Amino acid sequence: MTDFELYFGLGREHIMDVTAYDHILFVIALCTIYQLSEWKKVLILVTAFTIGHSLTLALVILDWISVDSSLVEFLIPVTILVTALGNMIKRNKDFRNTSSRTNYFFALFFGLIHGLGFSNYLKALLGRDTDIIGQLFAFNVGLEVGQILIVLVFLGIAWLLTMILNVTRKDWILAISSAVAGIAITLMIETKFW
Protein backbone atom coordinates (compact mmCIF):
# COMPACT_ATOMS: atom_id res chain seq x y z
CA MET A 1 0.00 0.00 0.00
CA THR A 2 1.39 3.40 -0.96
CA ASP A 3 1.42 6.44 1.30
CA PHE A 4 -1.22 8.03 -0.92
CA GLU A 5 -3.55 5.04 -0.54
CA LEU A 6 -3.00 4.95 3.22
CA TYR A 7 -3.76 8.64 3.82
CA PHE A 8 -6.53 8.69 1.22
CA GLY A 9 -8.18 5.86 3.18
CA LEU A 10 -7.68 7.71 6.47
CA GLY A 11 -9.35 10.82 5.04
CA ARG A 12 -12.30 8.90 3.64
CA GLU A 13 -12.73 6.93 6.86
CA HIS A 14 -12.43 10.10 8.95
CA ILE A 15 -15.43 11.71 7.30
CA MET A 16 -17.48 8.51 7.13
CA ASP A 17 -16.76 7.22 10.63
CA VAL A 18 -20.18 6.72 12.25
CA THR A 19 -18.66 6.69 15.73
CA ALA A 20 -17.35 10.21 15.14
CA TYR A 21 -20.51 11.37 13.42
CA ASP A 22 -20.04 15.10 13.96
CA HIS A 23 -18.60 15.56 10.46
CA ILE A 24 -21.41 13.53 8.90
CA LEU A 25 -23.95 15.69 10.76
CA PHE A 26 -22.29 18.84 9.50
CA VAL A 27 -22.25 17.64 5.89
CA ILE A 28 -25.92 16.68 6.19
CA ALA A 29 -26.75 20.08 7.68
CA LEU A 30 -24.91 21.77 4.79
CA CYS A 31 -26.86 19.80 2.18
CA THR A 32 -30.35 19.80 3.69
CA ILE A 33 -31.61 22.86 1.78
CA TYR A 34 -30.44 21.51 -1.59
CA GLN A 35 -32.01 19.10 -4.05
CA LEU A 36 -30.33 16.44 -6.15
CA SER A 37 -30.64 18.69 -9.22
CA GLU A 38 -28.44 21.26 -7.42
CA TRP A 39 -25.52 18.84 -7.16
CA LYS A 40 -23.03 21.35 -8.59
CA LYS A 41 -23.77 23.85 -5.81
CA VAL A 42 -23.43 21.08 -3.23
CA LEU A 43 -20.13 19.93 -4.72
CA ILE A 44 -18.74 23.48 -4.42
CA LEU A 45 -20.12 23.69 -0.88
CA VAL A 46 -18.44 20.52 0.37
CA THR A 47 -15.24 21.48 -1.45
CA ALA A 48 -15.26 24.82 0.41
CA PHE A 49 -15.59 22.84 3.64
CA THR A 50 -12.66 20.62 2.60
CA ILE A 51 -10.49 23.65 1.80
CA GLY A 52 -11.12 25.10 5.26
CA HIS A 53 -10.57 21.71 6.87
CA SER A 54 -7.32 21.24 4.92
CA LEU A 55 -5.96 24.65 5.81
CA THR A 56 -6.20 24.21 9.58
CA LEU A 57 -4.96 20.62 9.37
CA ALA A 58 -1.84 21.92 7.61
CA LEU A 59 -1.38 24.85 10.00
CA VAL A 60 -1.52 22.61 13.08
CA ILE A 61 0.66 19.89 11.59
CA LEU A 62 3.29 22.47 10.65
CA ASP A 63 3.10 23.89 14.21
CA TRP A 64 1.95 27.31 13.01
CA ILE A 65 -1.13 27.31 15.25
CA SER A 66 -2.28 25.49 18.36
CA VAL A 67 -5.80 25.47 19.78
CA ASP A 68 -7.16 23.94 22.98
CA SER A 69 -8.84 20.65 22.02
CA SER A 70 -11.71 21.13 24.52
CA LEU A 71 -12.58 24.41 22.80
CA VAL A 72 -12.57 22.68 19.40
CA GLU A 73 -14.76 19.85 20.74
CA PHE A 74 -17.27 22.51 21.78
CA LEU A 75 -17.04 24.62 18.61
CA ILE A 76 -17.65 21.72 16.21
CA PRO A 77 -21.23 21.10 17.46
CA VAL A 78 -21.74 24.88 17.54
CA THR A 79 -21.04 24.96 13.78
CA ILE A 80 -23.52 22.14 13.27
CA LEU A 81 -26.16 23.94 15.34
CA VAL A 82 -25.67 27.26 13.55
CA THR A 83 -25.96 25.55 10.15
CA ALA A 84 -29.12 23.67 11.18
CA LEU A 85 -30.72 26.82 12.61
CA GLY A 86 -29.86 28.68 9.41
CA ASN A 87 -31.65 25.97 7.43
CA MET A 88 -34.76 26.35 9.58
CA ILE A 89 -34.77 30.08 8.99
CA LYS A 90 -34.30 29.62 5.23
CA ARG A 91 -36.97 26.93 4.84
CA ASN A 92 -39.70 29.46 4.07
CA LYS A 93 -37.69 31.25 1.39
CA ASP A 94 -37.39 30.63 -2.31
CA PHE A 95 -34.29 28.43 -2.43
CA ARG A 96 -33.39 29.50 -5.95
CA ASN A 97 -32.57 32.90 -4.46
CA THR A 98 -30.65 31.59 -1.44
CA SER A 99 -27.26 33.27 -1.35
CA SER A 100 -24.81 30.56 -2.38
CA ARG A 101 -21.82 32.79 -1.62
CA THR A 102 -22.90 33.11 2.01
CA ASN A 103 -23.31 29.34 2.25
CA TYR A 104 -19.86 28.80 0.70
CA PHE A 105 -18.28 31.26 3.13
CA PHE A 106 -19.80 29.52 6.15
CA ALA A 107 -18.78 26.10 4.82
CA LEU A 108 -15.20 27.33 4.41
CA PHE A 109 -15.12 29.07 7.79
CA PHE A 110 -16.68 26.15 9.64
CA GLY A 111 -14.27 23.82 7.81
CA LEU A 112 -11.44 25.69 9.53
CA ILE A 113 -12.91 24.69 12.90
CA HIS A 114 -13.58 21.08 11.90
CA GLY A 115 -10.01 20.73 10.64
CA LEU A 116 -8.75 21.43 14.13
CA GLY A 117 -10.71 18.44 15.44
CA PHE A 118 -8.58 15.80 13.74
CA SER A 119 -5.31 17.69 13.47
CA ASN A 120 -3.58 16.44 16.62
CA TYR A 121 -4.26 12.79 15.76
CA LEU A 122 -3.08 13.26 12.18
CA LYS A 123 -0.03 15.18 13.42
CA ALA A 124 0.94 12.22 15.59
CA LEU A 125 0.57 9.87 12.61
CA LEU A 126 2.68 11.93 10.24
CA GLY A 127 5.81 12.49 12.26
CA ARG A 128 8.58 14.79 11.03
CA ASP A 129 10.59 12.71 8.56
CA THR A 130 7.85 12.20 6.01
CA ASP A 131 6.28 13.84 2.97
CA ILE A 132 3.76 15.87 4.95
CA ILE A 133 2.44 17.75 1.92
CA GLY A 134 1.78 14.57 -0.07
CA GLN A 135 0.14 12.88 2.89
CA LEU A 136 -2.04 15.91 3.65
CA PHE A 137 -3.07 16.03 0.00
CA ALA A 138 -4.00 12.33 0.01
CA PHE A 139 -5.90 12.69 3.28
CA ASN A 140 -7.90 15.63 1.96
CA VAL A 141 -8.70 13.91 -1.34
CA GLY A 142 -10.01 10.97 0.69
CA LEU A 143 -12.00 13.38 2.84
CA GLU A 144 -13.55 14.97 -0.25
CA VAL A 145 -14.46 11.59 -1.77
CA GLY A 146 -16.06 10.50 1.52
CA GLN A 147 -18.08 13.72 1.71
CA ILE A 148 -19.29 13.29 -1.86
CA LEU A 149 -20.46 9.75 -1.07
CA ILE A 150 -22.34 11.00 2.00
CA VAL A 151 -23.90 13.80 -0.03
CA LEU A 152 -25.01 11.45 -2.82
CA VAL A 153 -26.68 9.07 -0.38
CA PHE A 154 -28.32 11.92 1.52
CA LEU A 155 -29.57 13.74 -1.58
CA GLY A 156 -30.84 10.43 -2.97
CA ILE A 157 -32.86 9.82 0.19
CA ALA A 158 -34.13 13.41 0.07
CA TRP A 159 -35.18 12.92 -3.56
CA LEU A 160 -37.01 9.70 -2.74
CA LEU A 161 -38.91 11.23 0.14
CA THR A 162 -39.77 14.53 -1.53
CA MET A 163 -40.51 13.28 -5.04
CA ILE A 164 -41.91 9.80 -4.55
CA LEU A 165 -43.49 10.03 -1.10
CA ASN A 166 -44.55 13.67 -1.54
CA VAL A 167 -42.83 14.99 1.58
CA THR A 168 -42.72 18.75 1.10
CA ARG A 169 -39.33 20.37 0.86
CA LYS A 170 -40.16 22.67 3.80
CA ASP A 171 -41.11 19.68 5.98
CA TRP A 172 -37.95 17.82 4.94
CA ILE A 173 -35.75 20.80 5.82
CA LEU A 174 -37.50 21.36 9.15
CA ALA A 175 -37.38 17.68 10.17
CA ILE A 176 -33.74 17.09 9.26
CA SER A 177 -32.51 20.44 10.58
CA SER A 178 -34.40 20.02 13.87
CA ALA A 179 -32.96 16.55 14.39
CA VAL A 180 -29.44 17.75 13.56
CA ALA A 181 -29.85 20.78 15.87
CA GLY A 182 -30.99 18.53 18.73
CA ILE A 183 -28.01 16.24 18.32
CA ALA A 184 -25.66 19.24 18.11
CA ILE A 185 -27.03 20.66 21.37
CA THR A 186 -26.50 17.26 23.03
CA LEU A 187 -22.91 17.17 21.76
CA MET A 188 -22.31 20.69 23.07
CA ILE A 189 -23.62 19.73 26.52
CA GLU A 190 -21.43 16.61 26.58
CA THR A 191 -18.18 18.48 25.93
CA LYS A 192 -15.79 19.17 28.76
CA PHE A 193 -15.64 22.84 27.77
CA TRP A 194 -18.22 23.89 30.34
From TrEMBL:
Which Pfam families does this one have? HupE_UreJ_2
Keyword Transport annotated: no
> Does RNA-binding count among this protein's keywords?
no
The alphabetical list of record keywords is: Membrane, Transmembrane, Transmembrane helix
Q: Which residues cross the membrane?
A: 20-36, 43-65, 71-90, 102-122, 145-165, 172-189
Q: What is this protein called?
A: HupE/UreJ family protein
Provide the species name: Reichenbachiella agarivorans
